[in-house]
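Aim 2 progress update. The chain analyzed this quarter is reproduced below.
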Amino acid sequence: MSTLRRLILTAAVSLLAACATTKAPPAPPAVATPAPAATPARAGPAANDNLNAVAWTQTAVEHDLVYREVYRQASEKLLLALKDRNWDALPRDARKNRPRGLKPAVIVDIDETVLDNSPYQARLVRDGKSFDEYSWSQWCREKAAKALPGALEFTRFAARHGVTVFYLSNRAQDLNEATLDNLRAVGFPLSADETVFLGLGTVVEGCEQVGSEKGCRRELVGRRHRVLLQLGDQLGDFVDVLANTPQGRRDAVAGYLDWFGERWFVLPNPTYGSWEPALFNNEWSKPESARRLEKRENLRY
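Predicted C-alpha cells:
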C-alpha cells in the first residue's frame, strides 16, 4: 500500500470514530401546557331537619290521600253520631252538662287541619330559618293558606246537615280577623249566628285557662252543643296534655284510644308539633345541636 493511500485510510477511520462518539444535541425542553382553571364546586343547600317533612307534605300523593281518607271516614261517622242522641265527642272532664237535646256541632283545629301552611314552612327551609312569631304573623296576614284535601267537603257536609262547625285555634288574638278572612275566602262555612272561631285568648267564664290548652274552649262549645266529632293534628286538639313528655302524652289519651277513628280524627303533621319538644324536655333554649342529639337518643334501633 502506498504511503498516500495509507494516509487517506487513516483519516477516514478517524472521522468515522469521531462521528460515533459525538453526542446529539439535547432536545429543547418541553413547554408545559397550563391546566385549565378548576370550576369552583357549587355549594349545596345547608342541612335542615325539616326538609323531608315539608317535601312530603307538599309533594307526596300519600299525604293528600290520607287527608281525604280521614275526612271521608269522619263524614260517615257524622251521620251515625247525628242519629245517636247520646253520642258526644268532648273529653269527659270538659262535659259539664248533659249533651242530649243540645244542638249538634263539630270542632276542628285550623292549622294543618283545614288550612295548609306548608308554604310558610317551605320558606323557613329555603331561608335556613326557624319559626318565629313575626314571620308567622306575616304569613297569616297574607291570608294565602289553601284548604287541605277533603277539609272543605267535610265542613260543608256538616253545615248542610245542620251541624255547626267550630274552629279552635292557638293563633294569637291579633290574627283573628286575618284568619277569619282566610277561612271565608277559601270557602269554609262560618255560622253568622254564633262565634265559631275561638282563638288563643278566648275568655271562658268560670273556667281557668291552662297555658295554650284548649280545654276551656271545648267546654264553652259543649255548654250549648253536643259535639259529634273533633278533628286535629295535635293531641291538644282533643284533650289537654298537662305533662308534655312522651309518657305524659301517652297517658293523656290512654282512656280514649277507642275514640280515635270514631269520635276523634287525627291528621298527619310531621313538620311541627308538641311531639317534638317532648323529646328534649320542652327546652327550646338549648342549642339546636343539643336538641338534635336528644331527639336522636329517642330513636329505637
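The CA atoms of residues 246 and 278 lie 6 Å apart. The first strand starts at residue 103 and ends at 109. These observations will guide the mutagenesis experiments scheduled for the next reporting period.
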